[in-house]
Fold each of these.
Amino acid sequence: MSSTPRQRRTSLSPGSGGATSSRQSPTSISGPRRTKQRQVILEELRKVTCHPSADELYNMTRRRLPHISMGTVYRNLELLVQKGTIQSLEIAGTQKRFDGNASNHYHMRCLKCGRVEDAHIKRRIPIQDVIKEVTDFEITGHRLELIGLCAKCKASKCRARVHVSPRGGLK
């Protein structure tokens, strides 16, 4: 049987109970079904370090998959979070954001613009071990978020101090 570029070649392996694609790449993700949409969403998320919201990721993904729906993006993001492939950053009072880096690391969030960045530091204190020593709470992980002003907002805050008010005085 010859195959055209659009057809998928499949092979049945004993005991597999179904077909497996011969084109699966080592970077593909596992799940109920490997889909091109899920793979593109993951690739787009891992291209950036800005921790986009689902809406932002939808717009990024549409450049490559113009017919993808918002619902598909949401469902795939939730699946990737459940599988531990990506992180969901749920910060009170803000939109949920997503991080393509699933390893345990810290984040910094700007109080003014909401920007979230990775804090590139080496952890010096094994915080989970310290907490385990003083409580009977079973620690399964942790997240640390540092809050403050990003460089851009800090600079605009400094400029705002010498801003001329509409009445001509300094603020």
Note: DSSP finds five helices and seven strands in the chain.
Amino acid sequence: MMRTTMAGLALVLASAPAMAGPLPDGGVTADEVASVMRALKLPVEKTTDRQGDPLILSTLGGRKFGVYFYQCQSERCASIQYSAGYEGAASVPMVKIHDWNRTKRFGRAYADGGTLYVEMDMDVERGATTEALANNFERWAAVMEQFPKFFK
């Protein structure tokens, strides 16, 4: 299986305009998001969360993350959330988590139990494009790259 690196994703994203296309109002479907992820060479495992909403599991640079879907009407969901968890939150001072949230525009951090999480939302209720989704994955890749370095 090919392992996607942050630099590799950046190269693939350079061709993102070639896959650009509008998505309808009302949100996105898991299939549409999965299609963009596959075009970016990201692995895709489609499943559902505890509420029965779509969930896509993937990896980036060897790190696992999920794409959660919210406000779903039929198959279309009005927002998505990228989420990744990192073990060892017990050793991270709360002031460091607050520092991340105060100084970083994208990706909010919080600790839950022994896990440190970073999440980032995208509102797609009024429509989006495949190019916008690809751009958001590029932003998410940057957050995932910065996050563990910030907390070392």
Note: The CA atoms of residues 6 and 142 lie 8 Å apart.
